[in-house]
Design a protein that fits this description.
Layout lengths: L6 E2 L6 E5 L4 E3 L6 E2 L1 H12 L9 E2 L13 E6 L5 E5 L14 E6 L8 E2 L6 H12 L15 E33 L4 E24 L6 H6 L9 E2 L9 E3 L5 H21 L7 E30 L2 E8 L5 E3 L5 H28 L1
Parallel strand pairs: 5-14, 9-14, 10-13
Antiparallel strand pairs: 1-2, 2-3, 3-4, 6-7, 6-8, 7-13, 9-12, 10-11, 10-14, 14-15, 15-16
Amino acid sequence: MGEIQEYKCPCCGGGIAFDSNVQKMKCPYCDTEFEMETLAGYDSELKNDRADDMKWESSAGKEWQDGETDGLRTYVCKSCGGEIVCDENAAALSCPYCGNPVVLMGQFKGALKPDYVIPFKLDKKAAKAALKRHYEGKRLLPKVFKEENHIDEVKGVYVPFWLFDAGADANIRYKATKVRAWSDSKYDYTETSFFAVTRGGNIAFEKVPVDGSTKMPDDFMESIEPFDFSEAVDFKTAYLAGYLADKYDVDAGQSVERANVRIRQSTEDAFGATVKGYTTVVREAGSIQLHNGKIKYALFPVWLLSTTWKGKNYLFAMNGQTGKMVGDLPLDKTAYAKWLFGLTGIISAAVFAASYLLWLL
């Protein structure tokens, strides 16, 4: 005796059966009707579903050769734990992240040598100018905060990044609907048609960046992207002269999860953008299979501007290649209260006007 095929309703997930009255498969829960061929095709799609395969093989970084680190020194911040690398000619230092003094640890040892570096393209003067532009148009920013003398330090820091290259084969299934409405002299009608939409194909990713420092907030670094990797060069310690370098404390393996999140989201956005012409579209299932995954280690240029106002530290970051700036700003509570009071008044007036209009009608 053969196995009985059981079908689930694609719309509500309930069990469905053949209805002899309509000669179709019908869901007793949502009353949706299906042709047998439609369900067979949908069932075939379900059987083709696979789990994600997003594994990587890392060849990031190189071993330091004898003598390459002779001119490098390591400093550590006892406040936030940041470990900074710079050349031996650097003067007294403070932490670029929290502003506290750092302590000399000695000659640089361990970690991997970067594969690439993007040299600084903009100088300290450009960073200060970018911060001033960042203040413009922000009416709720305290006026005193805008004064130039509040800037404590401006430091050029090479931030460690892991770069992910891979090809991705993706198959994604969507549940979509088309809704049609019409009326006659007696009734209003709404017809909802359900569709199973699939998209499959491949997409390539190059140099997907994930920063390797816990001190640098991920949202900061992603906000000042992109970096133009066409200007990257093979790493040489000479590029560190006059700048600091953050020593990574998140290795390549620990960065894989974040890379996969970014790749998955970009893949789903790219495929989802091709599903058009429907009233609603909901991703139902899908899988991504990575191949030829490679990881490299690079240093990207970032200007960090540390400011203090009313005893609180504010950190700003600027892309040292493009000038894109990001940072948190304090709020002028008095100006905010006035703005909120004005906004509330406008909303109240609008509500009153709408109510009065309805009363007139």
